[in-house]
Specification:
The chain is an alpha+beta fold. It contains twelve helices and 20 strands. The chain binds FE2/S2 (inorganic) cluster and fe (ii) ion.
């Protein structure tokens, strides 16, 4: 059980709070690259700060204060130009470094006053990587945006999915080190929801947790498995400080503010060998709904939607003074202790865990990955479909299991990439 003070220190993300200062040492994914190509401005709320993200005609990304320093108009209604973002109210022009480039009437009235040199807008760094746009709100010098190993893989279909979840980010991240929930929240609950008979899914016999350079791993043995299975020998990752990495996908829990979290999912599906070489020109993105408007209840049909139901069910900010932790929560306890220690070291001026500054190392940052060989080299579609399911997530998926609401064009692009027939067409029947 935690004290109220510890609960607050784990959950507050504003500037100046211990966790807010820790989180500001890391790059946060806030949008898709393709999103800004579709629309050049996006209002963003990140760690309690209201901002606007934009891409100007020169290709610069900017992340600036939502409110114009002149008379506070909302810059997400501004327009982008060759260089910078122009306020729609009186036309002041701001660049991505925070400089004011033009003040049309001031320059007419007082050409020599150079008032524009004396005003600045709050501006943060943005970088593109792996189809995502990343923001850094911390002190300089910024570390590198990690090149996690899957970002270097080829011959894969990648998609990015966003959801806004109305609860604090940290209870979502606690789920990243909770192996036992999978058996109940996903396997058994899905069976109960579909009223499937036939008993329960394999139960957990043993779990293990270890800290490593970039977070923690969690390992499990399920009924029918042994210590030779990769779920035990390799495990999955609670990636520092706010991500779950399963091998084929990442789930970042990005704090919008104390009461809301942006879930950012990055999913990699290896194409079968028959479809190589496969080159993805544009990484698609989409927004997944979390509530059913007809019933006003949370959606429960997909894996991450089930996670969301558990997290929002804990309350907007889970009250950890009322918990009763058991053996399955050993990883959660380890992670809480580590992150509070990390926040304390930042307060003392030290560097926290998992910061990457070495460009050579960042060419490809290796992580524990179950089934790495499959992701790197693939297999034939026939083999993938017929082989025994070696570990969860490896067989060629026909449907997207993680989030509801996948747009038809993304589904169709996935099927084309995988060489799957259009629905209703039997791939084995000869062409007529
Ligand atoms: S409020 Fe933005 S230019 Fe006046
Ligand atoms: Fe889950």
């Amino acid at each position: 059980m935690l004290s109220e003070d510890q609960n607050r220190r784990l959950t507050e993300v504003g500037a100046g709070t211990p966790m807010g200062e820790l989180l500001r040492r890391y790059w946060m994914p806030i949008a898709a690259v393709a999103e800004l190509d579709d629309k050049p401005t996006k209002p963003v709320r990140l760690m309690g700060e209201d901002l606007v993200l934009y891409k100007d005609h020169s290709g610069n990304y900017g992340l600036v204060d939502r409110h114009c320093p002149h008379r506070r108009a909302d810059l997400s209604y501004g327009w982008v130009e060759e260089c910078g973002l122009r306020c729609h109210y009186h036309g002041w022009l701001w660049d991505h470094t925070g400089r004011c480039l033009q003040q049309p009437f001031e320059e007419t009235a007082h050409p020599d006053a150079r008032f524009k040199d004396r005003v600045r807008i709050k501006a943060y760094a943005v970088e593109a990587k792996a189809g995502l746009l990343w923001a850094y709100l911390g002190p300089p010098p910024a570390p590198l945006v990690p090149t996690w190993e899957p970002f270097t893989w080829t011959n894969g279909f990648v998609q990015i999915v966003f959801s806004e979840v109305p609860c604090n980010w940290f209870q979502c991240q606690e789920n990243s080190i909770d192996p036992v929930h999978f058996e109940w929240l996903h396997s058994n609950w899905s069976r109960a929801l579909s009223r499937a008979g036939g008993g329960r899914s394999p139960t957990h016999l043993k779990v293990g947790f270890e800290e490593f350079e970039y977070g923690f791993t969690y390992r499990r043995i399920l009924e029918g498995q042994s210590e030779q299975d990769e779920l035990w020998t390799v495990g999955r990752c609670c990636l520092w400080p706010n991500c779950l990495f399963t091998g084929g996908h990442f789930e970042w829990r990005v704090p919008i503010d104390d009461a809301n979290m942006l879930s950012v999912g990055w999913f990699f599906d290896r194409v079968p060998n028959e479809m190589e070489p496969y080159q993805q020109d544009r990484i698609p993105y989409w927004y997944s709904p979390i509530k059913d408007p007809l019933t006003d209840r949370w959606i429960t049909s997909h894996i991450m939607n089930q996670d969301f139901v558990a997290w929002v069910g804990q309350g907007t900010i889970a009250d950890r003074t009322q918990e009763h932790l058991g053996e399955s929560d050993r990883g959660v306890t380890m992670m809480r202790k580590r992150i509070l220690d990390d926040a304390e070291s930042v307060r003392r001026g030290a560097e926290p865990k998992a910061i990457i500054r070495d460009a050579e190392k960042n060419r490809c940052v290796r992580l524990p990955i179950i089934g790495r060989d499959f992701f790197l080299n693939g297999s034939s579609g026939v083999e993938t479909e017929t082989s025994r399911q070696r570990t969860p997530g490896l067989p060629l998926r026909k449907e997207f299991p993680f989030l509801t609401g996948q747009p038809e064009e993304v589904r169709a692009a996935y099927r084309r990439a995988m060489g799957l027939p259009e629905p209703g067409v039997d791939a084995r029947s000869p062409a007529s």
